[in-house]
Specification:
Strands 1-2-11-10-8-9 form a six-stranded mixed beta sheet, with helices on both faces. A five-stranded parallel beta sheet has the order 4-3-5-6-7, sandwiched between helices. Among the domains are: 179 residues, 3-Layer(aba) Sandwich (Rossmann fold), CATH 3.40.50.10490; 35 residues, no CATH class. With 509 residues, it is an alpha/beta fold. Helix 1 packs antiparallel against helix 4, helix 7 packs antiparallel against helix 14 and helix 11 packs across helix 12. It starts with 6 loop residues before the first helix and ends with a helix. The chain is globular and about 70 Å long. It has 19 helices and eleven strands. 45% of the residues are buried.
Length: 509
């Protein structure tokens, strides 16, 4: 990786960013060409997506300061290293090759990903053709990135005409698994077990219970109903999965970036291989845009610039995402893991203290429900919270068009209201306005545009990390609580008085 990070220059840049004048949104819109300058229409395989950042406080001075910081932090070199398949996860000594799953990156990695995809495609098509008998349901067992991505894609894309009914189970709470069992016939159900290491405690426990469910139903060979999705195929075979039913993926693909690999098996089962291929194509189009487009015109980078401006210069601690599309109701949950697990760090990639805010808390919901739940705080609360609105021009339903007209009208009205506000001498009815939002408007929601939306957020997350010097590809913060959970019940392990009392109350001590 070429170049040396200049932290002194970067720190001076952050100070300069915070000291810049803060024109209101109204003042920014008084300048000619505001919408044109801060909106980008990307023509993608599934249709155009408009990225409208005009209602954020980005302006020429803010972006110039952030581009200077990007230069100091060797952004271009980091981006090039990502696409070249070099080590960008230094704490684990790995590349991050999720983009290779989309056909872009180091040649050897792209070729290996293509081979793994062909293996998955053959199995998916064999199942759809009836080679494994009558298969009507798939219970997909995983957790974290092995579950959130498949759940989002299936809920968004497979509500109608799904080739196989897919039920995603992640929680170790038995109620989650029982709910899936209740909707499936053991005689026509396959089990997918998704775990990068094939040692994930929650996933293996759920998988064992699924095997017991099949046995209790009289299935003679329950192991023959299991498909393993893993970067550790030997572990899956050792657990009992037939080698022909193991779908591998590369060790260099992180869990929360693994939807594009064999972890996407349930998506291909629901959509068919053509739909999954379109999903990959949409993501690849964003990869090319992110790799080849200058920072000042790059939608992923400019979105990250907006994030950084609000966290670093305006003290914002959260960022909200509201999908005005019921099919995207799981998107905020997906983004929570992507952004908070990637960039929720307090040290730089070299282990030195970060010394400034890292990722904001990501949260959100679905419109119009959220308007009647949390928008009070957005409009009149004391917190400044940047908001993303995501919507599609084409409806996902066949009902009266009044439904979708009302949905989009509310989406656009909320952004306008946050910006404009409404003055009143009655403080209870006063809306201060000047509150930022961005809108991502898809021509249609389909496999390609959903793939593009997810890849956009992946690269936005990487851009945020590169600007701060964070390694977004490790997640050691998830381990401590799990380690302590494994120690419960072991002799000689002491806990604080509160935890001890809770364990005793629950009968675990």
């Amino acid at each position: 990786m070429a170049g040396t990070i200049d932290l002194g220059k970067a720190d001076a840049g952050w100070a300069a960013l915070a000291a810049l004048p803060r024109p209101t949104l109204a003042a920014l819109f008084a300048e000619a060409g505001r919408v044109e300058g801060y909106s980008t229409d990307l023509a993608l395989p599934g249709g155009t997506i408009r990225f409208d950042l005009s209602k954020t406080h980005l302006d020429a001075a803010v972006e110039a300061a952030l581009i200077d910081i990007a230069e100091a932090m060797q952004f271009d070199a980091l981006r090039a290293a990502l696409f070249a398949g070099e080590v960008v996860n230094p704490s684990e000594g790995r590349a991050a090759e999720h983009i290779a799953q989309r056909g872009i990156g180091k040649d050897a990695s792209v070729e290996e990903a293509a081979r793994f995809h062909e293996r998955m495609r053959a199995l998916v098509e064999a199942i759809h053709e009836g080679v494994l008998g009558d298969v009507k349901s798939l219970i997909h067992i995983g957790i974290g990135g092995s579950a959130l991505g498949p759940a989002l894609a299936i809920d968004a894309l497979a509500r109608k005409n799904s080739k196989v009914a897919v039920h995603v189970v992640s929680n170790i709470d038995g109620c989650a698994l029982e709910a899936a069992f209740a909707q499936c016939d053991p005689a026509t159900t396959l089990i997918a077990v998704a775990s990068k290491t094939f040692t994930t405690t929650e996933t293996i426990l759920n998988a064992n219970s699924a095997i017991e469910w099949l046995l209790d139903a009289g299935i003679a060979d329950p192991g023959g109903r299991v498909i393993a999705l893993t970067a550790a195929p030997d572990k899956a075979v050792e657990w009992g999965v037939d080698e022909t039913r193991v779908l591998p993926f590369q060790e260099s693909v992180g869990g929360r970036y693994s939807l594009w690999s064999s972890i996407g098996f349930p998506v291909a089962m629901a959509l068919g291989w053509q739909g999954f291929a379109e999903f990959l194509d949409g993501a690849a189009a964003i990869d090319r845009h992110f790799a080849d487009t200058p920072l000042a015109e790059n939608v992923c980078v400019r979105a990250a610039f907006s994030d950084l401006y609000y966290t670093q210069a305006r003290g914002c601690q959260t960022r909200a995402c509201f999908a005005y599309d019921e099919r995207l109701k799981l998107l905020p949950s997906y983004l929570q893991q992507l952004e908070m697990e990637s960039n929720g760090k307090s040290v730089r990639a070299d282990g030195t203290p970060l010394g400034r805010p890292s990722a904001p808390v990501t949260w959100g919901g679905v419109g119009t429900d959220a308007q009647h739940a949390v928008f009070q705080l957005l409009h009149q609360g004391t917190h400044l919270i940047p908001v993303d609105f995501i919507a599609a021009i084409m409806p996902g339903d066949d009902l009266d068009t009044a439904h979708h007209v009302g949905l989009l009208s509310n989406c656009f009205a909320q952004g306008a209201a946050l910006m404009a506000g409404r003055a009143s001498t009655d403080g209870n009815r006063n809306y201060p306005g000047d509150r930022p939002s961005a809108t991502i408007l898809c021509e249609a929601l389909n496999p390609a545009t959903l793939g593009a939306l997810i890849a956009f957020h992946e690269h936005r997350t990487f851009a945020n990390a590169a600007m701060l010097g964070i390694n977004p590809f490790d997640q050691f913060g998830v381990e401590l609580g799990k380690d302590i959970a494994r120690s419960i019940g072991q002799a000689g392990v002491d806990f604080d008085a509160s935890t001890t009392a809770l364990l005793e109350a629950a009968g675990l001590a």
